[in-house]
Amino acid sequence: MHRLVLLALAAVFVVVVPSPAVATPSHRPVVFVHGSAGSAQQFQTQAKRLASNGYPIEIIEAHEYDSPNVATLLPSIYAGLDERIARLLASTGADRVDLLAHSLGTFVSQGYLNSSPARAARVAHYVNLDGRPATALPGGVPTLAIWGEGDPARTVAGATNVSFPTQSHTQTVSSVESFREIFRFLTGRAPRVDRIVPQTIARVSGRAVLFPSNVGVEGATLVVYQVGSLTGHRLFPVHRAALSGDGSFGPLPVLGSARYEFAIERPDAPTHHFYFQPFLRSDSFVRLLTSRPGEGLGALVETSDRHTALTISRQKEWWGGSDSLWLNGRQVLNEANAPRTKRVIGIFAFDAASDGVTDLTAPLPAFFSQTFMTGMDVFVPAGPLVSLVVRQRGGGYDILNVPAWKSSEHRVSVNIDDF
């Protein structure tokens, strides 16, 4: 019986699901510009909320760039935005696009809108998410400015300015409160729903990129597995493809309620495993953030056959004083390694010095010095499973079990939903 169930589920993935034709939309295309060390992943939840309210997923895009080198790349970033907007207008028949940006992305977007009346004329609405103040509407475009915790005097003059003083910097992008304001501003009405409406069969696509440059991964193979909802262990593969160019993959048909592992395999390098909670509905903003072997923060992670090394991310900051994250029953967040002012969204947790000892009295300096990052000395034994339990600030718990791969041969990234 068990074998028959698996075969029936596997059959879902051999059906060719045609790409839906994109007719002239009732909604304008949406373009999101991320902030420092960011990617499309920051807008992942809001994109699915928009789609739950009738936006075709094909008209919601993100414009990604190499944020550490933004100052030298502005002309090419602007040119890329020109091309993206022109393509969206041509493919949809819309009169203009709606532009949204976060943090450093507001510097990029305000500069873009102010650089040319012709550019500003192709943007109907602009949303400035917890970023750069302004003394006038960027390019004269109607603007919604959303602000989180921090200086309450920040404004974009002439804009609709909305403040959420209890929300953190990245949370202002992903929160349901921000979504309500954004949707009303873009459409002139309240959203029908402000949650993600599940689909039985979803289509998932995205990119495997080098963090934080957003350059595509090449010379690797991506293998996608459906995994057990309770254990995270592999059930069967559903996709295999070589990565090249900008690291794009998909769209892949998946079960909206199931869990999946995305594995990046490279010759003579550790396999990088990515684990997600169920996608719920179609998602084109999946990002697999990795690095070249021996480069980036991954090269600073100490490894052994005895322990597993984890990277845990959430597009809502971890607050050591009020959030909880248990690894194998141990609460690992505290005011030292995840203070509210650090705005941590990415956690590196591994056995520093490979000594089998956990020490949470101070963060690991090389990781803590990075924007939005922290590092923790946590001994998680290699073995069948590691259990992650998250208590969300808004209430409720998320529980994920994933394989505890030995760090000498594997990297493990776990993505926690921000809602």
From TrEMBL:
SUPFAM superfamilies: alpha/beta-Hydrolases (SSF53474)
Location of the AF-1763-like C-terminal domain: 314-418
Keywords of this entry: Signal
Signal peptide positions (record): 1-23
Domain AFL C-terminal intervals: 202-293
GO molecular function: hydrolase activity
Single GO biological process annotation from the record: lipid catabolic process
One Pfam family per UniProt: Lipase_2
4Fe-4S in keyword set: no
Protein name, as recorded: Lipase
Phylogenetic lineage: Bacteria, Bacillati, Actinomycetota, Actinomycetes, Micromonosporales
